[in-house]
Fold this protein.
Amino acid sequence: MKHQKLLPFPESFLWGASTSAYQVEGASREDGKGLSCQDVKKVPEGTSELDICADEYHRFKEDIALYAEMRFKTYRFSIAWTRILPEGTGTVNQKGIDHYNDVIDECLKYHIEPLVTMYHFDMPHALNQRGSWSNRDSIEWFADYAKTLFENFGDRVKYWLTINEQNMMTLVGPVIGTSVLPSDCTNEKKELYQQNHHMLLAQAKAMILCHEMLPGAKIGPAPNISPVYADSCRAQDVLAAQNANAIRNWLYLDAAVYGKYNALVLSYLKEQNAMFEIQPDDMNILKQAKPDFIGFNYYDTSVCKWPANTQEDHTDRKKADQQSRMQVDGAFASCVNPYLKKTDFGWNIDPEGLRVALREIYSRYHLPMIITENGLGAYDVLEEDGTVHDPYRIEYLKKHIQQIQLAITDGCEMLGYCPWSAIDLISTHEGIKKRYGFIYVDREEFDLKTMKRYRKDSFYWYQNVIRSNGDIL
Ligand code: BGP
């Protein structure tokens, strides 16, 4: 639809931004925190360790004051499981509880709604040593952790996100440092989907518990959604794009919203001899769980065609990242989109793809949506006078926000927008040099410099966007 007149953003629209604990907090071994998989992984050569990051653990008051200055209505951050339960299960670390109480209270002081991710790529190392998500007990480990969060923070946190990018952990875990397979694993794909099944059950239990314990709260999933376009109007290419969409995107939301497995994915897994085990009551548990909204991360789109033969191409799981062009044997082959420009780090820039995603998700699931990540990783430069000129980021965000308004006018129900990231932090695998924030942190990969915060041009721009509730676009 080419709209004549755009609808405004809702008055209650949650403008904000996102971070995650292991990428922003630092203090990775302080105040009783246990080790997570991120603390023990070998970081890629040339990139910073994750022990100090942006040091938000110690500087949260200063940072949240800056978020308030930008007029955030919400701040999406994650809780580090290992600060709450250093061993993943068992004894609660009071200092971890105290810390997040302080963070939540600081947000509320400025009327910033905390949007809390329960788990963002940081599995407790102790639980990885007990079999990680391959161990069926992981369902209860996560449910117990969720209960602890609801008990301690549920009086003030009204919006919860369960698991960040479960689809990326399943599809490209090694690069983001989350993949753990049993040493005797002989069928990697089957094992990955078994882990995925346990995560879905864990998520379902957390959603059920949330509704039982906190009647006023809302909870939803947070996958990474990247619409897949067909390379041509040949029906075969459309079928390939449907396969790719099912495997990459819909499996995760179909299970979270409807408690059902996507039929195309099941058929594909059977064909690949990778069908995982489902126990008798599992589907009931999935069905009982009802998310209140859909949170999703959006960065780009991809293009697929029919594979030339049933074994064409394989995704290299050791190298692929969140937005890599995936190749799945027998299901689809990826192609280049000649219409899109790329970021300095090789991800497509496709603002209209966000509208495609919003329309598609809303048509499939009929739930309100919040964009939990979207943003541009770039090499920002701190000038001598303390300014940071990032017109490219403003351009990127502006175009995406315009597409949200178009989607709202299309009839999509939107709760909010939380670009990645509120402040500069460490990328999943490309260090601090890949900056996303509205706030520049004065440090380099291996030189902590002053760690001072500087407002980028995009900071002032976003402040105006929020002040006008999106009207200045
Ligand atoms: C998402 C993750 C974030 C984040 C972002 C940018 O996939 O949820 O944790 O880092 O992508 O990715 P990267 O850091 O790889 O540039």
Q: What stands out?
A: The domain at 14-228+290-303+343-467 is CATH 3.20.20.80 (TIM Barrel). The radius of gyration is 21 Å.
